Amino acid sequence: MGKIEIANSLKTIGRAIPRTDYRAKITGAIPYPSDVAVEGMLESAIVHSPFAHAEIESIDISAAIEVPGVICVLTRDDLKELDPYFGPVFRDQPILAIDRVRYEGEPVVAIVAVDRKTAHYAASLVEVEYHPHPEIDNLEAALEPNAPLVQSYAQRGSHYSKVLADADPRHTSNVAFKWDYDRGNVVAGMATADLIIENEYRVPIIHHFPLEPIHTVAKMDSEGITVWTGTQTPMAVRQDLAVIFGCPQSKIQVVSFPMGGSFGAKAFSKVEPLAVALARKAGKPVRVALSMSETARTIRRAGARVKIKSGVNRDGTLVARKVEIDYQIGAYADCAPRVAQKGGYVSAGPYRIPNLEIRSRAIYSNTPPSGAYRGFGVPQATWAYEQHTDELAKALGMDAIEFRLKNMLERGESYAEGDTPIDTDYAPVLRELANELEWDQPLKPWRGRGVAVSFKPSQAPTESTAIVRLHADGSVSVLMGTAEMGQGSNSAMAQIAAEEINIPLERVVVTKPDTAMVPFDSTTTASRSTVAMGRAVQNAARDIKSKLLKRAAILLKESVDNLIIENGEIVFGQQRLTIPEILYQTKEISGIEIISIGQFILAPTRSPIGGSTPFWEPCWVATEVEVDPNTGRVKVCRLLTAVDAGKAINLQQVEGQDIGSSMQGIGAALYEQMIFESGVLSNPSLVQYRVPLFMDVPDDFRSKVIENEDGPGPFGAKGVGEGGLMAVPAAIGNAVAQAIGTHINQLPLTPERVWRAITKKEGSET
Amino acid sequence: MGKIEIANSLKTIGRAIPRTDYRAKITGAIPYPSDVAVEGMLESAIVHSPFAHAEIESIDISAAIEVPGVICVLTRDDLKELDPYFGPVFRDQPILAIDRVRYEGEPVVAIVAVDRKTAHYAASLVEVEYHPHPEIDNLEAALEPNAPLVQSYAQRGSHYSKVLADADPRHTSNVAFKWDYDRGNVVAGMATADLIIENEYRVPIIHHFPLEPIHTVAKMDSEGITVWTGTQTPMAVRQDLAVIFGCPQSKIQVVSFPMGGSFGAKAFSKVEPLAVALARKAGKPVRVALSMSETARTIRRAGARVKIKSGVNRDGTLVARKVEIDYQIGAYADCAPRVAQKGGYVSAGPYRIPNLEIRSRAIYSNTPPSGAYRGFGVPQATWAYEQHTDELAKALGMDAIEFRLKNMLERGESYAEGDTPIDTDYAPVLRELANELEWDQPLKPWRGRGVAVSFKPSQAPTESTAIVRLHADGSVSVLMGTAEMGQGSNSAMAQIAAEEINIPLERVVVTKPDTAMVPFDSTTTASRSTVAMGRAVQNAARDIKSKLLKRAAILLKESVDNLIIENGEIVFGQQRLTIPEILYQTKEISGIEIISIGQFILAPTRSPIGGSTPFWEPCWVATEVEVDPNTGRVKVCRLLTAVDAGKAINLQQVEGQDIGSSMQGIGAALYEQMIFESGVLSNPSLVQYRVPLFMDVPDDFRSKVIENEDGPGPFGAKGVGEGGLMAVPAAIGNAVAQAIGTHINQLPLTPERVWRAITKKEGSET
Fold it and tell me: Domain Aldehyde oxidase/xanthine dehydrogenase a/b hammerhead spans what residues (chains A, B) (predicted)?
């Protein structure tokens, strides 16, 4: 019996084991997209617009084309043969600027040459005449009644999002997308409230700064298109390329290599269409290797302005809330309308609010496109509503935690009708973190404590399909479209397959996404993969196991029920059969390899934003900070977070994800902002753009992993990895407010901004 | 109604349409194995044994390793870390010679260098001291009672062939393998015969001479092994590499590129293990690019000596036959034991013979390994029994065709108990070809006519599995392990998928075999793929169609029975739905991509050689030749062949295969032989080794395709492509015998040999 118990207990799931790719990462055996080098490959350089908004009057490439070593020069003229627009919501982004440039850094001309130096030299010889227009580089300017339109003409819809595809793609203002929600009666609710507070909160534009910039190699010939890249969405890139180049999807191979970080920056088409267009013209493979500062001008996170008005009763009950959230998106929509929709959707916070009105908008501006970024619009909203929550508590004279606990949604309650009920326990976890932080203990001077909570829906409807193959020697291949970007999906999927079949983990290999080979997977986004792809892999692996046991049962002339698999061997009493023995001896009946397709489709009932989330990704943050009153510098002394993993497939990775996400939150809280001057990005590199460093790691930095095995994923798992980021800035903001006695409603909490708040010093910030 | 009929009639199957890859072949867009170039790849050179049989006394690589640009030198010492033997029947072939060399040209040392010139220069500096032994380079020497043993020690068995794995792998003679069959009572049968004729026939060793020599690139790192090669058996190569390098199969990726011809030469491991061993030592990708003459020393067809003794009654009835067939295989077994088994099995010919005894052997010799070659042992047997058939007819005073018709197996009769009954109509087709040839018309002087028939079992048990994916845009991917070597399998499989789903052919893409990605397929051999993989693809495609119709039925609220698919659109009355419309509108229920696995396992009842053939590959040849009496030169004036395709998937390709195979038969009949002098191959290049040229194409050269839709493959298809080769030499031999009045029992029918037969001139041939 003891033996059977061991056999049935989890071998790899839930353990803090090293990720399966650690050795390859350490030894450099893993090729990243920037390592891809295809024989005969040419290099490229891009001529970018120096203006944020201008007509292109003329382009003169005559000097560039004469440079020895230049193979070809791609201009807007070459795009006439193509359908050159892409974008996951509206197809509004051209491969190269056509008549107008709409942001500083927009690609205008691209050079293919034998090496990068030649390409860059030739690029410097391209003469483009521009007729500059006034640029729209902030929300206020974009929303002026007679503001020039960043985008004016009708856009073609996309298949990606039915809800969004139904939106009117014609623009008569700079509002790219608008999403409204209301329930109850906010006016009536406010009328009954004892106290109404209204405030405005600001979040700047920030950049993902994955340590690996965007690199893509492409080739195109009569047989089709091959793209070697790093993307979270190989299938979506394939779809864009199919439309742009008029090529059947079956002839397009998008291979996504493990990325050196993405955080959303490498979701949906980035330079892949340009790389293919260059390869098409050059007739050879071409690499597009962006620099860090080019990457920063390719994609970034939306800035936001959030107005919240709340009505509360004296006892602390929230009765009504109105949220107006405007996301400052860039010159092209990318997936920002969806960000506005999803971020807007949960912008009221995980609270019980009977009367609620939300208006969320995505506003075009002459800045680089904004797209997916860890948290997908929720961090911006959380900064606002969790500052606001503390302000409400303060105004009521209530403890910030007690006020939250009074209004917080409980497990089983609905945030919005039609969506999955809350599937986590906010209150007890918040209490636990507060206790851990010694919330009630006295503080030293210039210290403050703060908490914040947040929540995010995952994605629906989506689908994942995986193929699992059990080879003749008992090793296993998992073929799937989930992209590895450091989050450890390859390791998690290998663990799930190994666990389900009960074979040693080191026998399992997970392939990289290759659209020509692996079955369809929606995207690697929204913390969805552990759940959706995990279930697909689990389903396939279970089928493999069942087929294997059936074959063993035939050989052993035994009932399947009497057989177990123990570490890759089939055990019946004293008898043991290896997997090769079973497969070889039964191959004439069932084939030597056992192969199975596992699918997981998530098409639930409809919430206000479409399909209902498969799970909620909650987060809790409790922090203690110290402010230097002389400089305004904020030091995060303690940072306690909690993450609801349902069941951690790999405990080490879950903690790593939460710690990493929280560190990124420290960056957003204290340092990060992209600064535009007349639409020109002035801090595009890591020298000028401050990200959190090792010295910023809090002395007490812990992540609590909650495992109730109550998620829809394999073994009860939920998706994780975005949490910390969402609530860390607000928690730090609340702590800083406590330390200095006043709220600063605008991120980041730079020393200057904090110092000015302390000193109430007037004057513009520098 | 007319419309429906069109919709249901075959669109692509059976038509003489261009193969789908013709444009890519013509434009050079298809990368062949010799085009594979991996970034950072190193080159190599091999030091070959100059002796056919010798002990290796010492190897001195000190000068070679000092050559600038040399990366590493691989010797037998490096093999100690590996299990360095491979082979599909016995694992008897080492990556490099260890203690002994067993054939001239055997790899002894290999050099990796930055380029080929450096590698070859370094190879020239390697000093190997040999102690030569007497070589065994012909059957007689090998079978001497006290002949030295080519292979002496126990060999490890292989999983590939159960029947052969049971054979004793220890060698106490040079008989590598022996296979016996008997039925009835030959002694008693002979005793009742009116006439007994016994004769001996000879077939030389010949080479495949694919126009592309053997090229492989390999890399190996901590993540596993990748091999880019051209092989008919990627899964078998993977298995060898797994054993040699102790690597799970899931970590081995063998990618087989479309080959520039193979004809069996690129079946089973050739230089792949060496390439991986070099890449392992070099720590970088390495190419092994054999020259033509190195390829000729890698693999070749077995020579044969066939003794046939037959008893016939005066009325022409065959009553007894005894066949003794010895195949001269090389120094390592490769798949030659299976060649001996299968060629021996059918060495009595497609005739009704109640008393039959067959003894077939594979005999080791100090010559390059012999392996698979189009016809797999049957051409050697056919040369013998069809010469013999004419001799019997002549002795009986019967017409050669009438004698054949009297004894020929009819549809439904069994060649041997347990095997599939004959599934073709020998007699009427033979009559038709004879009529076509005007068999009864008088001949001009020095002209002769001949016929020959043959038959070959395909392979069993085997299995094929395919994945078919219907993408969102209505295009289709077929993932399969069948290797394209010019035979047109990619085209045929695309046609089968397009036909079954009823979508335009140009929307279908067939992937190349990639063991990391495509499901298991036994091999691309034995003309099995159209049947086995064809059925697997068909099964998957049917499932795709059925799922697509179900989804359309849901959308249209109609019964599936009322819907048809017409050229990629779903039609119901006046309504039409495109595939993308269906997939997008039903994706939340069933996923956006329809994916299906099709499997076809062939595990039939047991014939004397194992599983019973899924179909018989028959062939008929009728020819008229003209002999120049002054030079002995034979010109094939007319060559009429027939091929039973069951149903031609692509008529143009079926004819092309039969014509090509017949041309190769002309080579074997008139020109081809590998000449060994003291075990040293003296004609390893196309300058010295005569293959058929365009000037050898007969003036009247036709292939009749029989289509009774009676095969086990899709649409009633049978496998084709080996036929003509099997019987062409015998038909030409019989025609030459008629022209000159005497049979020459030894191939090839060189001018000298024919001239000597004419003049009965004594003296040794040169």
Answer: 27-134
Give A-chain residues touching B518 at CB under 8 angstroms. 517
- Cα B50 to Cα B137: distance, rounded to the nearest angstrom: 14
Peptide bond into A461 cis (omega under 30): yes
Q: Which two tokens stand for residue B150?
A: 């080519």
Contact (Cβ atoms closer than 8 angstroms) between residue A323 and residue A344 = yes
Angle (CA) B187 B191 B192, round 5°: 125
Q: Taking CB atoms and an 8 Å limit, are A595 and B465 in contact across chains?
A: yes
In A224-243, the residues whose Cβ lies within 8 Å of chain B are: 224, 239, 242
pLDDT bin (cut points 50, 70, 90) of residue B12 is confident
Query: Mind telling me how many Å the CA of B128 is from chain A's nearest CA?
Result: 36
Q: Mean pLDDT over residues A134-138, rounded?
A: 94
| A-chain residue closest to B20, CA distance | A223
What is the DSSP code string of A691-757?
---GGGS-SEEEEEEE--S-SSSGGG----SSHHHHHHHHHHHHHHHHHHSS---BS---HHHHHHH
> What band does B10 get if pLDDT is binned at 50, 70 and 90?
confident
Looking at the complex, does the CB of residue B83 fall below 8 Å from at least one CB of chain A?
no
Instruction: Count how many domains chain A has.
Output: 2
B540 and B667 belong to one structural domain: no
CA distance A665 to A641: 11
The pair phi, psi for residue A359, each rounded to 5°, is -130, 115
pLDDT for the residue A167: 55
> Is residue B617 located within the same domain as residue B741?
yes
Q: How far apart are CA A174 and CA A92, in angstroms?
A: 14
Nearest partner of A404 among A362, A442, A353, judged by Cα: A353
Closest CA to B68 of B108, B109, B111: B111
**Cβ-proximal residues to B79 (8 Å cutoff; 6+ apart), any chain:** B94, B95, B96, B98, B277
The mean pLDDT of B78-106, rounded to a whole number, is: 95
Neighbours of B106 (CB within 10 A): 29
**Residues 2-31 (B) with a CB less than 8 A from some CB of A:** 23-24, 27, 29-30
State how far residue B273 is from chain A, nearest Cα, in angstroms. 18
Tell if the CB–CB gap between B508 and A41 is shorter than 8 Å.
no
pLDDT at A349 over 90: yes
* Domain stops at, among B575, B602, B629: B602
Q: In terms of CA atoms, which chain B residue is nearest residue A599?
A: B591
B72 inside domain = no
A2 pLDDT exceeds 70?
no
Find the mean pLDDT for residues B706-735: 96
Q: Distance between CA atoms of B639 and B622, rounded to whole angstroms?
A: 6
Domain that holds residue B427: 377-459+607-759
| CATH code for the domain in which residue B468 is found | 3.30.365.10
Following DSSP, what letter does each residue of A486-525 receive, concatenated? Answer: SS-HHHHHHHHHHHHHT--GGGEEEPPPBTTTSPPB--S-
How would you class B636 by CB atoms within 10 Å of its CB: exposed for 0-12, middle for 13-18, buried for 19 or more? buried
Helix orientation angle between A529-556 and A489-501, rounded to the nearest 10 degrees: 30
Q: Is residue B765 part of a domain?
A: no
